[in-house]
Amino acid sequence: MNLQLSQVSYRIGEKCLLRDVSFQIGPGKLLVVLGPNGAGKSTLLHLAAGDYQPAEGEIRQFGHDPFNLPRSERATRIGVLPQSSRLDFPFKVREVVHFGRSPFVTSQKENKRVVAEVLLAMALDRIAERDYLTLSGGEKQRVQIARVLAQIWSVSQGTCLFLDEPLTSLDLAHQLMLMRLLKTLATGGHCICVVLHDLNLAMRYGDLIALLNGSGELAEFGEPPAVLTPQVIKAIFGVKTTLQPSQFNDRPGLLFE
Is the dihedral of CA 71, 76, 77, 81 positive or negative? Predict the structure, then answer.
């Protein structure tokens, strides 16, 4: 299994943020984490990435405990995009993306190749020489995503990518572009876990859904059509939903009432 959580719980003081979460992801899967505000989605992502140590339970990435991996190995196997990334220095876009290559002992030629490919994949090639501080919010978000992608871009196996609300500030075209790219990376063997709020994008692109309830428990886990039913959405989010046929694949779209 690429990623496995077994009865994982996490607490801060007496408050339990996550409770007895268990699931596993095999090769070639894109996991979308969903849930209401305060459900523990970001906490789950950081636990799975090895940033936090669980109070109970066990986490394995490709058979390893990510929390106990050496920092140098973590940096070349695990890429994490937090909800917000602040940078207050006037680096060029290309230089920021190049930061993602700093853990690797690779040639300058190889690093330039990877950075160029990631810039192109994230539609940043035309602004590669721009000052990062002059960019719009959506452009900055794409640069930060590209920086994290550069960490795992040239590694074909044994890597995990964790993205916490990466669609923030992105326009519709770039949201779709990113979801297609993440789907391709997952199919290529990377372990991709992403926190989203858009249920329709989760339905369309996710291979698996981990749906948390307001108590930090895993309410549902499985393929999107089995998880994102009107009954489940009403129970978790308190919103009435109807299913609509979709022309993109065999999965329905969601219409919110």
Answer: positive
